[in-house]
């Protein structure tokens, strides 16, 4: 289930979920999936989504997903990917000037986790350890008793994302994987995060300590496009996802941040909270 910040339930994309149930829940679907996620098909799909021929899909997508295009820059799109990575109008997703407030890095559905020695992170029945997600056991140990925030982007979300604080970039890592969907329906059938392409940035943040911001690719194209920044700037665009639902994960060390209570309470009930880029989701501890 997904709720907005006022506690109202938000309906998901039933047609997308039904397709994924067939792909992951039947033997024929899983055979088709092996073909769909092959590098050749993924590259072919990427070429099509970036071609002028893909423009024909834009109008129906906007209608079927009830997207408010008044939020976005007025332009003629050259391809579906050009539309998918559309920019929002200036001022529509402002970051609060109070640097002690934690803001969402993206439009998404948010889940909160408290990390302990025993924690196995679970996203819709997929379980994994932090050290496997990061492929760095020593780094993972630094975040025991800390906070994990998972931001799931659906295909109708704004697919550009930002830094949540100023800071020095300490490390960047790319982990190549097989691209599979991050839609939660798939979690019942396949260990998603262990096969997804992902990138993460370790940042010495001025207000929230040493944080990790990770981007996870998705089925088919699911391409992660991060800019080559040497420093992080609060509210500055970090990158964007090309076609495909995708995910952002944030990690904070113990004693650095407190997440808003409605998000924590929803997460305890396995409810995702709908948040927008630049929306307040917590604050720095000790302020």
List the helices and strands and how they pair.
Elements: E1 2-3, E2 9-10, H1 14-25, H2 27-36, H3 39-49, H4 58-64, H5 80-84, E3 101-103, E4 108-114, E5 121-123, E6 126-128, H6 130-134, H7 137-141, E7 147-153, E8 160-162, E9 167-175, E10 198-205, E11 209-216, E12 224-226, E13 231-232, E14 237-241, E15 246-252, E16 257-259, H8 261-268, E17 272-275, E18 280-284
Parallel strand pairs: 1-17
Antiparallel strand pairs: 1-2, 3-18, 4-7, 4-17, 5-6, 7-15, 8-14, 9-10, 9-13, 10-11, 11-15, 12-14, 16-18
Could you give a quick summary of the protein structure above?
The chain is α+β, with helices and mostly antiparallel strands. It contains eight helices and 18 strands. It has a ten-stranded mixed sheet. A three-stranded antiparallel sheet has the order 3-18-16.
Outline the structure in words.
By secondary structure, the chain is an alpha+beta fold. The protein has one domain. 22% of the residues lie in helices and 29% in strands. It is built from eight helices and 18 strands. The chain has a ten-stranded mixed β-sheet. A three-stranded antiparallel β-sheet has the order 3-18-16. A three-stranded antiparallel β-sheet has the order 8-14-12, with no helix packed on it. Strand 10 and strand 11 form a beta hairpin. The longest helix has 12 residues. The protein is globular, with a radius of gyration of 18 Å. The model has no long low-confidence stretch (mean pLDDT 83).
